[in-house]
Amino acid sequence: MKEVTLKQIAENLGISITTVSKALKDYKDVSKATKAAVKAEAKRLNFTPNSFAVNLRTKESKTVGLIIPEVVHHFFSSVINGIIDKAEKKGYLVIILQSNESYKLEKKQVELLISKRVDGIMISMANTTVDVGHLNHIRDLKIPLVMFDKISKLVACSKVIINDRMAAYEATKHLIDSGCKRIAHFRGALLPQNSIDRFLGYKKALEDHGLTFDPALVYICENVDYDNGRSAALQLIADGHKIDGLFAITDMAAAGAITVFKERNINVPDDISVMGFSNWFLSQAITPALSTVDQPGYEMGKKSFKLLYKEMRAKREDRYLEPVIRVLETKIIKRQSTK
Prior knowledge:
Blueprint (H helix, E strand, L loop, with lengths): L5 H8 L3 H8 L7 H13 L6 H8 L4 E6 L5 H16 L3 E6 L4 H13 L4 E4 L9 H8 L4 E4 L9 E5 L1 H14 L5 E5 L5 H16 L9 E3 L5 H13 L6 E4 L2 H13 L9 E3 L6 H4 L6 E3 L2 H20 L8 E4 L2 E3 L6
Parallel strand pairs: 1-2, 1-3, 3-4, 4-5, 5-11, 6-7, 6-8, 8-9
Antiparallel strand pairs: 10-12
């Protein structure tokens, strides 16, 4: 069956191809009657716009790339939902790639998205990414780029973040206010900025409230997951440290620690109060329910695409936009794992 074209609709209605195109796009300078006639004829003929031809004319692919460390992760799944909801309303397809916290895979995925000629890229960096040359290459190619959550200060692009340092400070302060005097911290890897900032927030809260910072109470969780939380808790106990509070970089790491404490008959929160970070669904499902920091993933996704869309539109109009940083608010969620 021969493909229906704008020309055929125009000939059937005795109007120009330009008018047909404008009517289908709801241009204001086309009358309501003409729009209705064009849309009715398009429906009768089962007309489908040739997106490939449109993309060639506009030099746009109407696709954007999204690279995240993990898909099966409550926070990132919320980010994805926020991005897709906004992107669909603007007619964009989102290509979602998972780096598995691997720098090599992340770099390869950036190259893939560039080769696919996406209109823009959003990324939350892998924990193992140190060299950001591949990200700066995106900027060199004038491809709009937005970083979120795990970002690098060495890349001059727009970013959507939370104030990790302040959020961690407030989380630690909540433990202190509940009576904790000796607080351990399960931190993330040494490189990601959010891991660094959450550690610094924890340390500053101790110092501001007259508590001694003990580096021996800081344990590194490379993958900030349940298993790493369990391993760190087991090591904490094996090291013989007596603590009455724990601030973990993620809810999953906190949940891993709580299961170990239960197995060792350490009561939460009577013996050790536990504070997580992110407010994943798991934080309410475990016993005791986990006190945590609410991190707005869905909002972060919406803001990330909104910034990217502005930059893509500016590029189409040959305008330059200065990179901006959007900082989203967090809040403490008090549950049963803290006094």
